[in-house]
Amino acid sequence: MEPFALYIHWPFCLSKCPYCDFNSHVRERLDQSRFAAALRQELAWEAARLGRRPLGSIFFGGGTPSLMEPQTVADLLADAARLFDPVADIEITLEANPTSVEAGRLAAFRQAGVNRVSLGIQSLHGDALKMLGRQHSAAQAVAALEIARKLFPRVSFDLIYARPGQTEAAWRAELRQALALASDHLSLYQLTIEPGTAFEALHRRGEIVLPDSDAGAALYDATAEEAANFGLLPYEVSNYAAPGRESRHNLTYWRYGEYAGIGPGAHGRVQVDGTLRATRRHRAPEPWAERVERDGHGSTDEERVAPPERAREMLLMGLRLTEGIDEARFLARTGIAMDDAIDPRVLDQAIDADYMVRRNGRLCATPEGRKRLDSLLAALVA
Amino acid sequence: MTDTPSDHIRNFSIIAHIDHGKSTLADRLIQSTGALTSREMTEQVLDNMELEKERGITIKAQTVRLTYVAKNGETYILNLMDTPGHVDFAYEVSRSLAACEGSLLVVDASQGVEAQTLANVYQAIDAHHEIVPVLNKIDLPAAEVDRVKQQIEDVIGLDTSDALMISAKTGIGIDTVLEALVHRLPAPQGDAHAPLKALLVDSWYDQYLGVVILVRIKDGRMKRGQRIRMMSNNAVHHIEQIGVFSPRMVPVDDLGPGEIGYITAAIKTVADCNIGDTITDERNPTAEALAGFKPSIPVVWCGLFPIDADDFEKLRDSLGKLRLNDASFHYEPESSAALGFGYRCGFLGLLHLEIIQERLSREFDLDLIATAPSVVYRVHRTNGAMEELHNPADMPDPSVIDHIEEPWIKATIMVPDEYLGSVLTLCNERRGQQADLTYVGNRAMAVYRLPLNEVVFDFYDRLKSVSRGYASFDYAMDGYEEGDLVRISILVNAEPVDALSFIAHRSQADTRGRSICSKLKDLIPRQLFKIPIQAAIGGKVIARETISAMSKDVTAKCYGGDISRKRKLLDKQKEGKKRMRQFGKVEIPQSAFLAALKMDA
Ligand SMILES: Nc1nc2c(ncn2[C@@H]2O[C@H](COP(=O)(O)OP(=O)(O)O)[C@@H](O)[C@H]2O)c(=O)[nH]1
Ligand SMILES: C[S@@+](CC[C@H](N)C(=O)[O-])C[C@H]1O[C@@H](n2cnc3c(N)ncnc32)[C@H](O)[C@@H]1O
Ligand code: SF4
Ligand SMILES: [Mg+2]
């Protein structure tokens, strides 16, 4: 049995960033112990229906999980180890914001068993951090990164680029500076205007103007070029790593492996009683906690994922990866052969246009194809 | 009401260039004879349809019966026949004029004679009308009465010593108009005891009454309950209602010689009523029909397609309803790879096309794509057969074509002389042949023969822009001539797009091919794959552009669990593809066609 991945969501932040559409909430006072207990309870409930199985990775995401009490992290990790069979080299990641408070707790997280951190640095420029509504300075971010690199065997950080007015030269310079600080993994995201965010309103009024698609493409190409100079290769649309240092947890998503999600708004794709289910938790933190306290879990609207949907989901995720999709695995995971899942005429054309390659039992999008993946998928899926 | 002796009847029409004051004068006449109280008067009483009111054009012939007590103390019936003023409806105009004995020729005294003045006055002369020149708008400071009188004499050859000077707006001279109608126009002739002989002037569909026919009695009498025969198709009907327009419909018992009125006879569609037909009594028919009717022949065709394929049925029903009221408009089903199912529609001219399109969208709430208008070509095959071609997409292979003929028109253009140069250049660019060029004061009148094909392709707009709106234009069909015509196909991703192909003279092919390719390049949004766009004559490419592939379109962050949302987004995108048209392996949003076609229409 393939090891599964466990995602644990911590839905609270110090403040809401204007671009962010994640399930994150700001609370003046927070009863940490209540949420800690609820998470543990829900984990136990999920484990009961999943049964013992090999566990390959754990990811604390948010929100801002670095605001959790390290003890909660330690308790959840101990529970997981008891309820499942962790693989020997289990990857345990925690998302951390690089404020000084959180930097101070990194050692305790390491102590609790976390072996990888992902820092939300976002930019190395003060004015950009201000624009992005961040609570930390560039210097604090760099300091947090240095501490993290000393404490953790694996460290990654996130940057947001293609920001309003950002030139290619400026981004290259910032990225080089970041690469010099990086260990073996980076997530580099182009700024996206998400529905319902403060940025969306500004964008609609023309107060935020993003680079157009030609400029975005140039920035994207520049990013890959700079990262490659430092030995980091794109293994996914926005993720760059030294070979072998990819995020195993995130790879599980992209390879359409199994993952369980607990905590408010967490999603999962798990096999229960022989069927693949899309699991989903109540999004709002307090009502979620109430349900867990009442029913033992905050699960809502679980659906069976039928083969055609599985096929589309696996294509949607898998083609984001440089390694593409293993066609045998595709058939095994979805019950549908690749040739039945995609439009052969579009595939031919995509191959002609050098957007895709199909060889050695794999279907992959090329770098040019990945750059246009949303349109490519819309055309490709049957 | 109907026992008026014919010597106390005057039937007349008003002819004028657009905006010279025809409708205003009609309103004034209606008002001053008391046919409507001032409370009932709405402006431009005769222009019923919303569209007519807005654009100031009359599509259907309308009529009003006025009762006028003249200065001599006698009471006269004055039947005002309001005719469509536009050349597209030339045949309808000539039939309306045939129902009258005289015309008021209204000329705006501040403007002078314009192209439509001429076209209409010649028709009135052909109809042997007595014509009374009327100079309108003399209240305007810019009115140049003497100059315009001189112009009427020079250009039309009418004596203007007795021309009337009026202002339809202020009412100056309206009495002189009424007196002139009585004393200068002839009374209708006719024999009340002869068998019935009536002219079918027009017909329209009324929601409550069904088809209403406008008639002019020549001989005999027409009565309620009478069985009548249409002489062109021998259809027999039973008159249910008969009446006059005052201007409201007022039933009467019968109508005698010289009178104008309406009948209803349980007729389903106006297509069963041929304008210009002779109506007679079924049992006591007249020996001889009036000068023959001619079926109206569409000269301009275009495809109409619903933007939303689900609206096809609605389009079909709407076309049927429009045709109830407009037999001159033709339609037949057409299917296009690019635009789906629709109809190929034939019109009397460009204005007619525009009106129908506008009515479809306005009255029936339909969003339509119209393909570029095309004229009717005569294709002569090498085997001697001739066929009429309404649709460039149906053009046979050049190898089987011996030659092609295209329709020509004779155009009259009036323009202030400072713009004459640009107007002549435009006509020459459009393969025009000058037939006449005369000056009247500082206005020039150019008569050109032009291929109709060149006129349907944005000629009006160009004429307006090169003359700053001062040129007036009118035309008449002027036969067919052989031309060096080629079909230009537009290929998107190497596949011909039927809806975009068009026929042009060989000398224009390159320019037009290049222009449409470059327009399409700007209009078709960048796609996943790069798309070549070509214009070709047969296998020979004459113009080429490439739409480059879109440079980037990918969700930046996609991890974590919520792939259901992303999948649903993808499902939605797939749904959106249904509104795209497939070209080989390329999909083109329908909106691009719409925009490309709009620019030519
Ligand atoms: N000043 C002035 N304006 C007039 C006169 N007669 C008509 N008009 C205006 O000229 C315009 C066109 O008149 P209309 O009767 O619609 O012209 P039609 O297109 O020939 O029916 C309208 O704005 C009228 O108000 C007139 O005697 N004097
Ligand atoms: C779960 S989020 C935030 C993690 C952490 N709370 C933080 O702010 O550092 C993970 C990453 O997604 C990226 N991200 C969030 N919203 C984004 C947006 N609208 N456009 C581009 N990247 C975004 C940021 O780089 C962020 O670090
Ligand atoms: S970006 Fe991170 S810190 Fe900011 S609101 Fe989102 S989850 Fe919270
Ligand atoms: Mg009018």
List the helices and strands and how they pair.
The complex is a heterodimer of chains A (382) and B (601).
Chain A: E1 4-10, H1 32-50, E2 54-62, H2 70-83, E3 85-96, H3 100-112, E4 116-122, H4 126-131, H5 138-151, E5 154-161, H6 168-181, E6 185-190, H7 198-204, H8 213-229, E7 233-236, E8 239-241, H9 248-254, E9 259-262, E10 267-272, E11 275-280, H10 285-295, E12 303-304, H11 307-318, E13 325-326, H12 327-334, H13 338-341, H14 344-352, E14 356-359, E15 362-365, H15 367-371, H16 373-380
Parallel strand pairs in A: 1-2, 1-9, 2-3, 3-4, 4-5, 5-6
Antiparallel strand pairs in A: 6-8, 7-8, 10-11, 11-12, 13-15, 14-15
Helix pairs in contact in A: 1-2, 1-10, 2-3, 3-5, 6-8
Chain B: E1 9-16, H1 22-32, H2 50-55, E2 62-69, E3 75-82, H3 90-98, E4 102-108, H4 115-126, E5 130-136, H5 145-156, E6 164-165, H6 174-184, E7 197-206, E8 210-219, E9 222-223, E10 227-230, E11 236-238, E12 241-245, E13 249-251, E14 254-255, E15 260-264, E16 278-281, E17 300-306, H7 312-325, E18 330-336, E19 340-347, H8 350-363, E20 368-370, E21 374-375, E22 377-381, E23 386-389, E24 401-416, H9 420-429, E25 433-440, E26 443-451, H10 452-456, H11 459-466, E27 472-483, E28 485-492, E29 495-496, E30 502-505, H12 506-523, E31 531-537, E32 540-547, H13 563-576, E33 580-583, E34 586-589, H14 590-600
Parallel strand pairs in B: 1-3, 1-4, 4-5, 5-6
Antiparallel strand pairs in B: 2-3, 7-8, 7-16, 8-15, 9-14, 10-11, 10-16, 12-13, 12-15, 17-19, 17-20, 17-21, 18-19, 22-23, 22-24, 24-26, 24-27, 25-26, 28-29, 28-30, 28-31, 31-32, 33-34
Helix pairs in contact in B: 12-14
The complex binds guanosine-5'-diphosphate, S-adenosylmethionine, iron/sulfur cluster and magnesium ion.
